[in-house]
Every structure is written in structure tokens, then in C-alpha cells.
Amino acid sequence: MAPIDSPRPGRRAAVIAGLRTPFVKAGTDFRDLSAIDLGALVVNELVARSGLPPSTFDSVIFGQVVPSKLVTLIGREMVLRSQLPRSVEAYTVARACATSLQAATSAADQVALGHSDCAIAGGAESISDAPIFASRRLAQKLVELSKARTLAQRLSVISSLKLADLRPEPPALVEPTTGLSMGQSAEQMAQKNGITRLAQDQLSVLSHQRAAAAWAAGKFDAEVMHVAVPPRFDRTSARDNIVRADTTLEALSALRPVFDRKYGTITAGNASPLTDGAAALIVMSEEKARALGLTPLGYIRAYAYAGLDPRDQLLQGPAYAAPIALDRAGLTLQDMDLVDMHEAFAAQVLSNLQAFASRTFAEKQLGRPAPLGEIDPARLNVNGGSIALGHPFGATGARMITQTLRELRRRQKQFALLTICAAGALGAAVVLERE
Ligand SMILES: CC(C)(COP(=O)(O)OP(=O)(O)OC[C@H]1O[C@@H](n2cnc3c(N)ncnc32)[C@H](O)[C@@H]1OP(=O)(O)O)[C@@H](O)C(=O)NCCC(=O)NCCS
User: Fold this and answer.
1) Is 115 labeled as catalytic in the residue annotation?
2) Under a CB-based contact definition with an 8 Å cutoff, are residues 60 and 244 in contact?
């Protein structure tokens, strides 16, 4: 292996360990748990399994995308609902689907600056517990009602309500700038880039086959905790329940498009499903790890976030962020032993791979003389991705870091690139290294 020559200023941030809950389809095993419950489960278990005294930890950085009702600071709740000392400082981060990558890179920055020696970074999501909002008019009327002094005033407010005002408003996965859902935006990308339904379904089959094979080989056993399922706690959720070992191209090609029913190509089979779950990492300074005699899983070598116009290709952020992260790492795509690209939709992965390899994209969009290059399929999402494993928005980044570093170790390899596309037309990329 090449000698490590860290390009990042400051101290090197080591990932000591990572853990996640099983990722389960929303409304199934975790339907009675909130994101905070799921986060607390994984943080407690991660700290316990580390064998480190809770006093080792000095900070928690945690995130979720869909907010929990009435709890705004999931980061601090992770401290208050765990065995960590109350003196551990904490904050919450949000970067849509890249939220727990943000938690990890923020922790790495705190370590680099010398502000933190040992942090927990992660995220959680419960789509099962998504808040349902009252309509704006109902909310206004409820405020008026609370101010009404007489029965007549109260009746007047109540009688001014229309039936339509009572309709609940679920949170929408809609991009405010365009009014399009993530699925509709991915559908547009498929059309613009000529991504066929067949190519999407082929990628999805591979995701399921590889995830199922990884489970069968025991690769995930040490990175996925077991969760007793409430309310009866009489059974355990021990594995992801979205992976289907028996997924076939024939079964996928029979599914009907969801976001454009007439001409579309995106189905429940080639999109990431709505998922509940949580994931967390221990991020420590290299010196502290050495002093404690710990062998890190690996290091965060470099990262980058990038934005583009949401009216362009909403989920193409990885193609913008990856070149910057690789430049910052002092490495090229060809140096990467593994690439893990978050699979929001197969169409989004294929569009990004196309952009990675396109000279026109490099010249016109990035102002670079040459494209990053093609990714060898044998190095890409080798243990499956979010289509098969599920995508609890706030937890996916931390899941990817643990999964990829453990695979690098298994293969005795050195470098990996992770990418995530996120709402708001953001892209995230992280370069990981082992020594
Ligand atoms: C696409 C989406 C609408 C589908 O939701 P859903 O209809 O609840 O999906 P289901 O799991 O019920 O699957 C629908 C059908 O496809 C089938 N299916 C799904 N995956 C399959 C697979 N791998 N193999 C075979 N069949 C599959 C299901 O069995 C089901 O069949 P049925 O209707 O006969 O029961 C939902 O997952 C979604 O919104 N995903 C996108 C989330 C998103 O936007 N994320 C943001 C990314 S950044």
C-alpha cells in the first residue's frame, strides 16, 4: 500500500467503529419507534460494544431529515437518552439524504481542529413517525379559539371552519423550487440521459443480489445490531427486511411505473424504499486511538459538498462533488479500490455514472479538461446499495462509511469514494482511507 500522506490540515480523524439498526420498510418492525428512539438504541449499543468508558466521548453530532414531533434537537437527545455523561456537548445537523455524512465530516473537522478527541456521529429516520401537519387555516383557527373568551366567540371560530381545513397535510418529498417529487426528478434525469428501464432494473437486481449475498456471507453481522420490536418486545428485528434474494429481472420488469404512470421507467423495484433505521460511528483523533491502543477501521481523508440548480438534474450532485473531494484527497477515481454510490434511484446512479465518464460534462459543467472516468462495476456498491438495503434518509451516510471501511479491510485495500445525492440539488462525496 502507498504511504499515507494526509492532505487535510489538522489532526487525522479515525473511524473507530460503526453500527446500525436493521433498515426496515416504513410501517413494519419499527412503526412504534421514533427516530430518536432508533438513534438512542444505536448510540447506546455502539458505546457499549466499543468497551470505551462513556467519559471517553466529548461530543455527539447527529441528524434526521423528517423532524420528530416537538423534539428539535436529536443530537442532544442522543446524550440524554444514553449512558454518555451529561457534559457531552451535542448538536444536530441536516443535509437531506447526506445528513449522516455531514455528521461524520463535521466530527472529522472538530477532530482536525483539536476541538474534539472522540465523537459520536450519525443519524436516524422514522418515516413511520413522520409528523402530520394541520392545515395553516386550522392552525390559525386553533390560535383564535385559544384566545376566544366567550362561548359565542368560540362557536363563531368553530363555525367558520370548513371541512377541507381539517384535512391533515403529510410531509411531502417535494422539491420546493420545482414542485417535483424526488421520483419525478429522477424520472426527468432518466429521460434526459437516455437511461432505459432495463438498465435501471439490471442495476436493482444487482443491488439485491449483492446485499443478499453480503447478508448470507455474514458480512453485515457485526455492523447491524438486533432490536426488540415494540410494543410486545416478543421478537427481534435482526436483519434488513427490504433485501429480496429472489429479485429477478422478470419480476422487476413487470412492475408498473410510479411517478409517471404512462411513460415513466421508475418503479417500486428500482427506487429506494421509504425506510426506518439509524446508524452511528465513533470518530476519534488518530493520536487518541493510538494512545488507547485501538485499530481504526479507517480514516476520513477528504470530502466535498457541491450544489447545482435544482431545475437542472436534481440528483446529479455526486458528479459535481466527487471531483472536488478527489482533488482534495490528492487522488484520482482510478486510485479508488471501492466506490459506494448511494442509490436513491437506479436512474440517478446511472445518470451520475454517465456524467463521471463524460468529457462533455467535464468540460461544460465542471470546466475540467478530462472526465473523472468510468467506474469498474466490480468495485461499485459491492455489497448492495440503498435500493436493496433501504434508505432511512438520516442514517444512510453512516451506514455507507461503516460498510465500505469494513469491506476495504476485508479486501486489504486502501481507498474508497462515497457519494450521496441530496434534496436541494446537493451532492456529497467522501474519500476514505485505510493504512
Ligand atoms: C417508489 C415508492 C412510491 C413505492 O412504494 P410502495 O408502493 O409502498 O412500494 P411497495 O413496497 O408496496 O412495492 C410495490 C410493489 O412492488 C413490488 N416490489 C418492490 N420491490 C420489488 C422487488 N425487488 N422484486 C419484486 N417485486 C418488488 C412489491 O412486492 C409490491 O408488489 P404488490 O403491489 O404486488 O404487493 C416508494 O418506495 C417511494 O416513494 N420511494 C422513493 C423514496 C424517495 O423519494 N426517496 C428519496 C430519495 S433521495
Assistant:
1) no
2) no
